[in-house]
Amino acid sequence: MFFTNGFFIVGVLMFAEYLLCTKLKSPLWGGILPILIFIGSTYVFASGIIPLEPRNLLPFLILNILFFGDWATGRDKYKKIQQAELEKMRAKDIN
Fold first, then answer.
1. d(C-alpha 36, C-alpha 41), whole Å
2. Contacts of 77 (CB under 8 A, 6+ apart)
3. Most CB atoms closer than 10 Å: which of 19, 26, 30, 45?
4. What percent of the chain lies above the pLDDT cut of 70?
5. What 3-state DSSP class applies to 44?
6. Helix (H) / strand (E) containing 29
7. pLDDT tens, position by position, for the chain (95 residues)?
8. C-alpha–C-alpha distance, residues 84 and 76, integer Å
9. Where is 47: in which H helix or E strand?
């Protein structure tokens, strides 16, 4: 049950991250979730809520890599979408 809820929450957050990265002009909007997750992960280990051990660190590391990777991928997709729109406008101007 715990894993199902966790995967659902991560899925919703990744979808929100995707929308923030690909639909909004500023890259900072897409960086909100990864930065918050990184700060939260750091806090959890620094405060001692979860002991800093390899078996505890791995899920947080994977989560951070996923969200920062999604941020980078989303920004690349945003640039490609913008470039495609620009090329479409240029094609209409030529005709």
1. 8
2. 21, 22
3. 30
4. 96
5. helix
6. helix 27-46
7. 666 888 898 889 989 988 888 888 888 888 999 999 999 999 999 999 999 898 999 999 999 999 999 999 999 999 999 999 999 998 887 76
8. 12
9. none
